[in-house]
Specification:
The chain is of the alpha/beta class and 262 residues long. It has a single domain (5-230), classed as TIM Barrel (Alpha-Beta Barrel), CATH 3.20.20.370. Helices cover 42% and strands 13% of the residues. Strand 5, helix 3 and strand 6 (95-98) form a beta-alpha-beta unit. The longest helix has 21 residues, at 226-246. The N and C termini lie far apart (36 Å).
């Protein structure tokens, strides 16, 4: 069995302007998200959490016939206000990766809202302590970023934090090994693809959902169609090439000129 994990960011109400915070590349309107959830539900897909997926990998759990993983990055307030209500409507669940130092800031979830997500049956994971690029940190700073975010979330929410997602998608083998040493059970990264029983749990692949991608193409990727992955993979390869040529700093500058608020 092969499983696709989808990644969502800020979910914007249809009748409101996009907020200044966040990356406009990854904004998704409510009607776009609902259209995707409706299609997947009609196709018979059922969501599993990061924890449930790892249990299946370890041989201690089972998956539904047509599984899909929903992950949400950055801890936006819209994850409760917009996303959670849509998930519940279609009897879906999600894994929400949050950054402790962003909790309570304007536009982001509060601790009480996070506790409500837990009450609703959602899984909470770490997105780093401060959302710094993990690949740019010293080993000491990296260890602090990973262990402290886990500790704070566990203390404030009273639940085990077993999974983590790479902030900004920046990761390498050193970071992956450090997440394992910090006590995490799963590390979700930016590499596009499907996940199977043999996939390294500290390099679990995801597919980012964003407005320019048609719903049909996302559904095709969830269904594992090679042509859909080829198209999306070509776009990702181009972005990586531009980053390599320009460097991350100038790439981000260019992106902000092309997409306001990105």
């Amino acid at each position: 069995m092969r499983v696709v994990a989808l990644t969502f960011h800020d979910i914007i109400e249809d009748d409101k302007a996009a907020p200044a915070h966040g990356d406009a590349f990854y904004h998704l309107r409510v009607h776009e998200m609902e259209a995707l959830l409706s299609r997947l539900h009609k196709h018979g897909y059922r969501t599993v959490s990061s924890k449930a997926f790892r249990a299946w990998q370890q041989g201690s759990g089972t998956l539904p016939e047509r599984p899909v993983v929903f992950t949400f990055d950055d801890g936006y307030a819209s994850h409760l206000d917009q996303a959670a209500s849509l998930l519940i409507r279609y009897r879906f669940t999600g894994t929400f990766f949050v950054t402790p130092e962003q909790i309570g800031r304007p536009g982001y979830l509060t601790w009480d809202q996070l506790k409500k997500l837990v009450f609703l049956g959602m899984e909470i994971g770490s997105h780093g302590l401060t959302h710094k690029r993990l690949t740019e940190l010293t080993r000491e700073a990296l260890d602090h970023e990973l262990t402290e975010s886990k500790r704070v979330l566990e203390e404030r929410l009273g639940i085990p934090i077993q999974s983590i997602a790479a902030p900004g998608g920046f990761w390498n083998s050193t970071v992956a090994e450090s997440t394992k040493m910090a006590g995490y059970d799963a590390f979700w990264v930016s590499t596009m693809g499907m996940n199977g029983n043999e996939t390294n749990p500290f390099a679990l692949r995801r597919v980012v959902v964003r407005s320019p991608r048609e719903i049909d193409r996302i559904v095709s990727m969830v269904e594992g169609q090679p042509s859909a992955f080829w198209w999306a993979g070509s776009q990702q390869a181009l972005i990586r090439l531009i980053k390599r040529i320009l460097g991350v700093y100038w790439y981000e500058k260019l992106k902000r000129r092309v997409v306001p608020n990105a």
